[in-house]
Write a structure and sequence with these properties.
- By secondary structure, this protein is an alpha/beta fold.
- It has helices at residues 2-17, 40-44, 71-76, 138-145, 150-170; strands spanning 25-27, 49-50, 53-58, 67-69, 84-85, 92-97, 102-106, 118-124.
- It is built from 5 helices and 8 strands; from the N terminus they run αβαβββαββββαα.
- α1 (2-17) packs antiparallel against α5 (150-170).
- The radius of gyration is 26 Å and the shape is elongated.
- 17% of the residues are buried.
- Residues 5-20 have low confidence and may be disordered.
């Protein structure tokens, strides 16, 4: 019983210590979605698009589409030479940002691009995790960067205490 509990404690601790890097799914246009007369430059200006993020386009399926073009065709709203057509069928399309580069996306249907349905994003590499703050005490710093630091020891000690109390206090009364 104690071994299983200790194993469970280790799994829980490792799960808490694991750093998860999750891609972001951006709904293009926010609550205005992919529609004419929305300024997508303004929508995108305060956002950072990173490698493996997703752009999610929601629009009226029979009226608009999502076409990737080069910069020149983006500026002139020319959809005749697409790099990619991201349109599926249902007005719920996703573009996986799987390369660090500029993406130029327009709607080539119903004059959508001329009414503002165009989005340019620059995809960047995911920034590195911030470095830990420097410490003045070298002995404390050595302990903090050790795999046996307080973020590991405290949860294990708490769980071990609970297990010992369970085995020695609760179980004898059952």
């Amino acid at each position: 019983m104690a071994r299983i509990a200790l194993l469970m404690a280790a799994v829980v601790v490792i799960a808490f210590l694991a750093v998860e890097v999750a891609a972001t799914k951006w709904t293009v246009g926010g609550n205005k979605f992919w529609n004419p007369d929305v300024n997508y430059t303004v929508w995108a200006q305060d956002k950072h698009f990173y490698l493996d993020d997703w752009l999610y386009f929601v629009y009226e399926r029979n009226q608009y589409n999502v076409i990737e073009v080069n910069e020149t065709d983006y500026i002139s709203c020319n959809s005749n030479n697409p790099i990619a057509n991201w349109t599926t069928c249902c007005g719920r399309d996703v573009v996986h940002l799987n390369e660090t580069r500029h993406y130029y996306l327009i709607s080539g249907n119903s004059g959508g691009c001329y009414r503002g349905m165009k989005l340019a994003v620059l995809v960047e590499k995911t920034p590195p995790s911030p470095a830990p703050a420097p410490t003045k005490n070298k002995a404390r710093r050595a302990f903090a960067v050790s795999w046996l630091g307080p973020q590991f020891v405290i949860p294990v000690a708490v769980f071990a205490t609970i297990v010992l109390m369970w085995d020695n206090v609760v179980l004898p009364f059952w």
